[in-house]
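Lab manual, section 2.4: Encoding a predicted structure.

Procedure: take the sequence of the chain (187 residues), apply the prediction step described in section 2.3, and record the output as structure tokens. A sample record is shown.
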Amino acid sequence: MNEDEETWIVVNQASRLDKLITPLQIHVASYLSYQEASAFCCASRDCPKMRSVDVELEETASDFNNHPSSGYAAFVWQSFEFPPSSSRHLIHHCTIDASWKDQGWGNRKGMLSVVKDGGVAPGDSCPSGSDVVASKQPAPHKWEPIQLTFTCNPESSYRLWVRIGGGGGHALFFRSTTVTAYEFIVD
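Recorded output:
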């Protein structure tokens, strides 16, 4: 083998390796939490980068203030889907941001949950099932920001569930609700 042939083999192997590094890195990052994946993307200029993608919601604000006293169960507020994309399989995690509060007095029972693939969120005093991927409770008496973050499977369907709380007099309010997906960028 002459020197030109050896050079061609080295260059050819390097270009194949470059094409494998990004898929391998993305595969490794798929096992990381969202904090670890974000840090991984910043570790080197050779690591894949992430971008945010806004996910459309039907409602960004809602007032649940006509709740029956016998309503101890959680219920679906709304569903959301990731935008169609040729790189949909590259979505790693998702955040839900909002401002929320309850009725402003008495017991605090309000809950916001993200549930995947047809699962259900828990009612009052019930544990969460394995389909609940993110949840926060109880709602505060005054307006406060809430953020739920979860590693997601873009093939799954997700729904926002709320629980207002039974026993009478409970209410739950949401403002400025947004859903953002974070996906890897592949050149």
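Check your result against the sample. The CA atoms of residues 110 and 139 lie 5 Å apart.
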